[in-house]
Amino acid sequence: MIRKILVPVRGDGKGDNVLAHAAAIAHRHIAHVVVVHCRPRAEDLMPYGIYIPEFLRKQLVEQSYKVADAEEAGIRDELRVLARNLNLDDSGDKIGKVASVEFVEAAGRQVDVIKRHGRLADMIAVAKPDRDRNLGKNTLKAALFHSGRPVLMCPPRSTPPETLGAKVAIAWNGSAEAARALSQCKSVLRGADTIWVLSNGADAGPGTSIDDLITYLELHDIKATVETFSPGERLGRELLRVSAGLGADMMIMGAYGDSHEHETVFGGNTQAVVDTATMPVLLNH
């Protein structure tokens, strides 16, 4: 069951969209959304390797606290209004009874905050990285590689999603990453109305074939339909195209069978999905 969704924010303008996606999941699963503002520590803002006189260091620390206080107050007020518009209860009295939200602050670098708070969440929601502006890459990487939890990558959109997790496509190739994603995301599948398993017809051998997967899902009372497609040379893009064509509102896939660095530099199926997705993708490494 999905009961806790973590949404890390840091004032980069992407938190509203991510919260809207998290709210759609929360309403479907009666979950609690924890919005964590990652507040930088003063020492993290100091120039590295440069001597700073004590009086100047003190001034910089005081100024950084004032800036952080103002930023936190602004983000908190903005998200509180947005949460109410998304029908998330922020009273603290109805957690587990309705879709709810709370706002907390955590000092430190965002990647470290995600490590600490993400491991006790059922899902972490982050913005789709913006490679052109070099935003969000480390956030997604930290969530995927250091939390051990499923990560919902939320692409930018002008309006909040009306529903999320009702029609789900699963990318399956029999790999360890795909199997781990399947195991970690059963709660999403149990809450879905329609499930498709995407197969390129070249699955692994006995024990992980598409027929074996359907049988396994049936043992868990999860009914799915197989959708076979020809991947061509761009498997990642084709997975997204097929999922969208079916009407899926989310795709689930195992992430980075090759290392993150290898796929970032040389390309790969996961990186293609991260770079080009226009639909929410639930990733698991």
What is the CATH topology assignment of the largest domain? Rossmann fold
User: How many strand units?
Assistant: 10
Q: Approximately how much beta-strand content do the residues carry? A: 15-25%
Structural class of the helix and strand makeup? alpha/beta
Shape: globular
How many angstroms does the end-to-end distance come to? Answer: 20 Å
Largest sheet: 10 strands, mixed
Radius of gyration: 20 Å
SSE series: EHEHHEHEHEEHHEHEHEHHE
Average the pLDDT over all residues and give the rounded result: 86
* Tally of discrete structural domains: 2
Order of strands, widest sheet: 3-2-1-4-5-10-9-6-7-8
User: What is the CATH architecture term of the largest domain?
Assistant: 3-Layer(aba) Sandwich
Highest-level CATH class of the largest domain: Alpha Beta
Count of DSSP-assigned helices: 11
Contiguous low-pLDDT stretches (5 residues minimum) are 261-267
Helical percentage: 40-55%
Layout of strands and helices, then pairs:
Blueprint: E1 4-9, H1 15-29, E2 32-39, H2 42-45, H3 54-85, E3 100-107, H4 110-118, E4 123-127, H5 137-146, E5 151-154, E6 167-171, H6 176-184, H7 186-190, E7 194-199, H8 210-219, E8 225-228, H9 235-246, E9 250-254, H10 260-266, H11 269-276, E10 281-284
Parallel strand pairs: 1-2, 1-4, 2-3, 4-5, 6-7, 6-9, 7-8, 9-10
Antiparallel strand pairs: 5-10
